[in-house]
Amino acid sequence: FKNAEAIGHPGGLFLNMISSMGYSCESQTTPYVPYFLSALDYFAWRYNMPEMFYPEALTPGMREVSKSGDMWGNLFPRGGYVSQVHDYKASAVVAQRIADIVSRDGQLHVYLPATAKQRDGYWPPKEVKEGDEKTHKWQMLSPRTQNTCAIFPDGFTTDAYGDKLSNQESYSWALWRPYACCKRRGQTFLGSVDWMSY
């Protein structure tokens, strides 16, 4: 069983400052704001209610954190119980569950959605989808800070991930999401063409 939290990244203070000057896109999150605390989401997090009856929870192979035969765990039900015995992988599955919850509106959990609406000149990221690097990437912060980002699973099927294990069974990641925006120059935005893939 794992408890988990999703807190607005402290670096967002700097990002908000440069976004107000037009150098960055506005973030969907506010620094230090708790978007999800598993202790407050008691019934859904501890008892998997009502998600244990969702089709995603009942259908094998649907909504899994896996890649090329390396299956880390099911995304549903989005609660604290994980059937993965490897602590790093179990924690990554829980982080993916939290990201799945907070990146959507109207979920049956106690949480604050980290979502925004599209408007002229601003295209916030879509919902986090496991295995899709166009919607998100993870950067490990503890027990080891990494300078790279990846999606889960973030290695090969044969990896033991011993270098990423925590003695305290405590992990933290930064969730990075792709934003698109443009500075308003005229009266009406006509459109854009994205030549770069994320």
From TrEMBL:
Alphabetized InterPro entries for the sequence: PFL_4710, TraU
Species name: Rodentibacter caecimuris
Name of this chain's protein: Integrating conjugative element protein
